[in-house]
Amino acid sequence: MTKALAFVVIAVFMFASCGREDGNSSRIYGREVDSVVVDTVVPLVSGEKHPNCELHLSLRFFPSLPELNDSILSMGMIQPEYLPGAYNKADKKQLLNAILKKCISSYRQQFTPIFLMDKTNANEYNYSYKVYTETWPGIDSTVCYLAHTLIKEGDHQQLQSFVKNFDLRTCSTITADDIFVPGYESALIRLIEKKLMKTFKANNENELKEKKIFVNCDPYIPDNVMLLKHKIIFIYGQDEIASHDYGEIKIEFSRKELKDLLKKR
Questions:
Q1: How far apart are CA 52 and CA 108, in angstroms?
Q2: How many CA atoms within 13 Å lie on the side-chain side of 152?
Q3: Contact 19/254 with Cβ under 8 angstroms?
């Protein structure tokens, strides 16, 4: 199994508990979803096997919704410096290849001079950049767009997820404020805390802090919220509320568990 494929399998496995819906479906509420993939490995310096730059992009787009595709690209899953200034919006393969080209150029400009001065620690200049995306159906013609980004520099690895929810009819963004009743925040934070206490076997907020959860801040609702058809999942990024070793922390609720806080449909 290649490293790129291994990452895809890991990403899918991470969210296997999201429900029976398929995050890789070719259609959502009648809208076609295309998946565009590019994959390459290039050396830092021609003729040298190591170090190298490993790139894998697997992005999902809606062919009939160019406005939504623009919003998807601005989610943050692609580093801004890698996005081309101008590109053919209809040719997503060309776009992804342009992103790879900019990534490779940036990598070589940054590390080539350092590597040529000292080749004894070549592995420190290895770079890996992988993005894998999923689309999950929400309620009433909405879609949850989920992107996993894995960046590895030398021995340091950072996994980050980006989530946006969209109305397929208007291409507008749907947020937690749109689905929860006014003033929901305090009650929802308490429910999240209870889930965290159960997950980490803590009896109260102080014990959560002892387990290195919310040590430097008060509990809050994360920006990444998956508004699925049957579930709502809150995602805290790696290093966001706990130490790096915890990785991402996901808090999952059925819609029934949150029914008192949800607006009536």
A1: 9
A2: 19
A3: no
Whole-prediction pTM: 0.88
- In our burial notation (b when 16+ CB lie closer than 10 A, e otherwise), range 226-238 reads bbbbebbbbbbbb
Q: How far apart are CA 109 and CA 126, in angstroms?
A: 14
- Rounded to whole angstroms, the Cα distance separating 66 from 62 reads 7
Instruction: Write the pLDDT tens digit of every residue in 64-96.
Output: 999 999 999 999 999 999 998 877 777 899 999
The percentage of the chain sitting over the pLDDT mark of 90, rounded to a whole number, equals 81
Q: Which pair of tokens denotes residue 156?
A: 């340091």
Give the β-pairing of 127-137 and 249-254: unpaired
Beta strand 224-227 pairing with 231-236: antiparallel
- Of 77, 104, 179, nearest to 138 by C-alpha is 179
